[in-house]
Amino acid sequence: MSLISAPALAGKLFASDLKILDARFSLADAALGRREFLHEHIRGAQYLDLDADLSGPKTDPRLGRHPLPTEAGWQSVLERLGIRPEDEVVIYDQADGAMAAARAWFLFVLAGHQKVTVLNGGLNAWLALDLPTGSDTDAPEPSHYPVHFQTERLVSVDELKTRLRDTDAVLLDARAPERFRGEVEPLDRKAGHIPGARNRPYTLNLENGLFKSSEILRAEFDAAGAGSNEFLLSCGSGVTACHNALALSHAGLDHWRLFAPSWSGWIADDANPVAVGG
Fold it and tell me: End-to-end distance of the chain based on CA atoms, in angstroms?
């Protein structure tokens, strides 16, 4: 199970092994999510910051604008938050898990955490039912959490180039269609997409602020894959690609891997080709 409903979360709100994480973040205002968390959040939640917690240091542009944290970096985050391997973790965003909630979910999956879900509908769904919120920010007791990434969930740039020539793999780009086509590019120095990629905007996973049913998503991803045996996922910097990973898991399709550097990492090497148009 990759998603949890607001009523289901409310039913276990005071469980001793439950950890709730607030991952609200705005690319336009990096401090907005934390400010909103301090004002109001689901009772007992702790805050995760996309830049500080869910990304590593920007030491190599080929790793993209939001490099994955190292194993040691992610371990330090989990231990600071008091999370143990046996805990149940629920992550939420403002509305639909479109940004950092999906990225956080992916990092837990990458670390092999067994019980992690995203709140379907996010904080909006919680507030719509008038469920408990608060503004407390008590620091938890630190935990011990050895992290060992399951690197088979990742695809390197060299392997990606090889797999793009295969008929049994498809690269899905989660960005908006106009960015994929290269008509606009508000964040990166080059516009366009990785040659051979197909566009699957993450927004297609949603309907009225909630994820579509698993049956509908399965049919849509099967159509997008056109008979491929594996989905390779990218976006601008490896964040919204995780939304497609979350949707695939919700649909019961587990044969996916993330190209974490995504478009921003691909174009860091000027030798890599660029495609434009549909």
Answer: 34
Same domain assignment for residues 129 and 93? yes
**Residue 172 shares a structural domain with residue 91:** no
The three-state DSSP-derived secondary structure of 112-179 is CCCCEEEECCHHHHHHHCCCCEECCCCCCCCCCCCCCCCHHHECCHHHHHHHCCCCCEEEEECCCHHH
**What does the pLDDT read at residue 274?**
97
pLDDT at residue 96 in the model: 58
**Cβ pair 217, 250 in contact under 8 A:** yes
**Hey, what's the torsion of the CAs at 32, 38, 44, 47, to 10 degrees?**
40
Residue ranges for the chain with pLDDT beneath 50: none
**Cα 223–265–175 angle (5° rounding)?**
35
Q: Are residues 8 and 121 in the same domain?
A: yes
Catalytic site positions: 235
Parallel, antiparallel, or unpaired: how do β-strands 133-134 and 41-42 relate? antiparallel
Coarse DSSP helix, strand, coil percentages of the chain, rounded to the nearest 5 percent:
30, 15, 50
What total number of domains does the chain contain?
Answer: 2
